[in-house]
């Protein structure tokens, strides 16, 4: 396999431009403990999580006034607590109130099931359920534990146009003993993917996250010959699709916002150099986002299949 870049280009391995600049997805963990509601059997909201969300809202209004903001929750009471806290914050700070009023879309906080036809530039997804005062995780997490739990996680994951911050007291390990609830599984998968992306350094070969590993298996099941972590140096191609006419030849480079993306040095790198170098070396290129793979893997698989067909057609036209 030919190395992606010669020595002269070391340090210039980069990801390509996108029609709309897309930023990051990250998770903020809090020590969320609250009183168990004897009526509902839930710890629906915790002061520490509301405070964490409030700090993120304040930072957004101070630093990202050009971007709209929305808060997605998985429970109505938690959304109400956040809305009340934001109202108090804006009432006490005129500059923040002016910044909120100047946003090009209203600043709102509401449960995921009420976000179906809306997006914001940036979102804060606040899971909202906490631990008991003893630190125990309650098996029931409201709508997340219900029949629509998985769809609610998917909906929350796709409400941001640019960047999303997930706020929660839970870790993926908290859901390993609850495999029967689709919403819990979906949340565990998403948190695992985010945390592994944050921990990746890009300096050495990395194992694929469970999300990408499942997507690779999906591509292979469709008949494609797929290789992962292809190339040499610090930054590699996440997923490489072989030419169906000659499986020994790599055809399409599929870049995903994983370890390689986290290790890139500059906007210039992301915007130009990688695509140019890959094309020079004979690759065709496709860019995917993990949040889109999580939300709709079938659609992303179709994108890969289409990229392979188009690459073959282009090769034959110029062959």
Secondary structure elements and pairings:
Elements: E1 25-29, H1 47-63, E2 69-73, H2 76-92, H3 94-102, E3 108-111, E4 120-126, H4 149-157, E5 160-168, H5 182-199, H6 210-221, E6 226-230, E7 237-243, E8 246-256, H7 259-262, H8 267-280, E9 284-288, H9 290-295, H10 297-318
Parallel strand pairs: 1-5, 2-3, 2-4, 4-5, 8-9
Antiparallel strand pairs: 6-7, 7-8
How would you describe this protein?
The strands form two sheets. The protein has a five-stranded parallel beta sheet. A four-stranded mixed beta sheet has the order 6-7-8-9, with helices on both faces. The chain folds into two domains: 31-168, Rossmann fold; 206-318, Endonuclease, Chain A. The radius of gyration is 22 Å and the shape is globular. Mean pLDDT is 79; it is low at 1-22, 200-205 and 259-271. The protein has 319 residues and is of the alpha/beta class. The chain is 40% helix and 18% strand. Helix 1 crosses helix 2. It has ten helices and nine strands.
């Amino acid at each position: 396999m030919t190395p992606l870049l010669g020595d002269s280009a070391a340090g210039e391995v980069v990801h390509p431009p996108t029609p709309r600049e897309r930023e990051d997805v990250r998770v903020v963990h809090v020590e969320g403990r609250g009183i168990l509601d004897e009526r509902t059997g839930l710890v629906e909201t915790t002061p520490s999580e509301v405070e964490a969300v409030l700090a993120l809202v304040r930072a957004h209004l101070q630093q990202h006034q050009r971007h709209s903001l929305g808060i997605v929750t998985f429970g109505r009471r938690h959304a109400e607590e956040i809305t009340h806290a934001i109202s108090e914050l804006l009432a006490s700070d005129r500059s923040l109130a002016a910044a909120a009023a100047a946003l090009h879309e209203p600043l709102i906080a509401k449960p995921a099931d009420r976000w179906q036809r809306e997006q914001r530039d940036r979102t804060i997804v606040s899971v909202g359920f906490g631990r008991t005062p003893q630190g125990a995780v309650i098996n029931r997490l409201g709508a997340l534990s219900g029949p629509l739990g998985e769809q609610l996680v998917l909906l929350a994951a796709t409400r941001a146009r640019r960047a999303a911050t997930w706020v929660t007291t839970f870790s993926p390990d908290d859901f390993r003993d609850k495999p029967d609830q689709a919403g819990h599984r979906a949340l565990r998968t998403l948190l695992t993917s985010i945390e592994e992306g944050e921990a990746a350094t890009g300096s050495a070969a990395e194992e694929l996250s469970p999300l990408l590993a499942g997507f690779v298996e999906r591509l292979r099941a469709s008949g494609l010959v797929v290789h992962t972590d292809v190339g040499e140096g610090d930054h590699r191609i996440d997923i490489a699709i072989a030419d169906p006419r000659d499986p020994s030849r790599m055809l399409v480079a599929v870049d995903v916002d994983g370890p390689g993306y986290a290790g890139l040095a500059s906007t210039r790198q992301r915007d130009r150099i990688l695509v140019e170098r890959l094309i020079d070396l004979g690759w065709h290129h496709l860019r995917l986002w993990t949040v889109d793979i999580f939300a709709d893997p079938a659609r992303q698989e179709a994108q890969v299949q289409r990229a392979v067909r188009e690459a073959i057609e282009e090769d034959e036209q110029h062959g």
